[in-house]
Amino acid sequence: MTPPRITKDEYYLGIAREVARRSTCFRRSIGALIIRDDQIISTGYVGAPRKTRDSLEHGFCLRDRLKIPHGERYELCRSVHAEQNAIINAARAGVSLLGGDMYIYGRDLQEDRDIDALPCFICKKMIINAGLNRVVCSAADGGHRTFLVDDWIRDWQEGDILDDRQQYG
Q1: What are 40's strand-pairing partners?
Q2: Does residue 82 sit in helix, strand or coil?
Q3: H or E segment and range at residue 134
Q4: At CB < 8 A and 24+ separation, what contacts does 113-118 make?
């Protein structure tokens, strides 16, 4: 008997899960993977900017110390989001993201559980401007959710960014 073969979305989310293991955040482990034409073209994880000290090296989370809730005041975080790092890493390599898909895996480290790995508003704006087509996010129930970037654009054209139905945080 042949074991069941996983789908491409499950395969790529599994790779994003491994990428997330490089995260340097005390709160969340997030990994992002960008695929175009069925090839991995970039990865990113939550971490401090290159050549700077991350939260693990400092030994504490600045946002925890300041009692800032999840999903708020990102400008006070040492880290760059996984989605942002995946886009930046592609730019550093001179690789176009147009027409690609992003896979995001997330885990809450404080509660040791998978999370709905939805991108924040800043990352959504970057994903839209990068020209990506789909975003596949891990879900708290162990599955995944798929979003079409064109749907985000349409939602924001008809409403506003604050009317977005899938909010992170």
Answers
A1: 35
A2: helix
A3: strand 134-138
A4: 113/140, 114/138, 114/139, 114/140, 114/141, 114/142, 115/28, 115/140, 116/140, 116/145, 117/30, 118/145, 118/166, 118/167, 118/168
Q: How far is residue 169's CA from residue 167's CA, in Å, rounded to a whole number?
A: 7
Q: For 62-96, what is each residue's pLDDT tens digit? A: 888 898 887 778 788 888 999 999 999 999 999 99
Structure tokens at 61: 């989370």
Element containing residue 76 per DSSP (H, E): none
CB 17 within 8 A of CB 80: no
Half-sphere exposure of 44 (CA within 13 A, CB side): 27
Helices (H), the chain: 8-20, 55-58, 62-65, 82-93, 121-130, 149-158
pLDDT in tens, 136-168: 999 999 999 999 999 999 988 887 766 566 655
Q: Which two tokens stand for residue 84?
A: 């942002």
